[in-house]
Design goal:
The chain is an alpha+beta fold and 96 residues long. It folds into 2 domains: 1-65, Double Stranded RNA Binding Domain (2-Layer Sandwich); 66-96, no CATH class. The protein is 33% helix and 21% strand. It has helices at residues 47-61, 77-87, 89-94; strands spanning 15-18, 24-31, 37-44. It has a 3-stranded antiparallel β-sheet. The termini are far apart.
Length: 96
Amino acid sequence: MSRQRLAIGTFGDIGFLPAAHGRIMARARFRDWDGRTRLVQVTADTKVLAERALKVKLSTRDLFQPASSSLTPDSPFSALVDYWLEDGTAARIGGI
């Protein structure tokens, strides 16, 4: 059975790896606002500091959500179509 997909703006399990000079790397997958899941990682002197730094980095990552849109992850598809049509993209592509 496959894993359940991460919700937009959330992260998965935090993993730890040894890094150079006795440091620790903390990393997790984060589902960005564009729907893509990306690996986010930080390195610190201890496991606790690495985990804390990663959580700070992940908590500020959602600030990159497009602010010029009234769309949310829960918006219906029709709202996306309306937004796209208002943007004028359809007129440029389809010659409407």
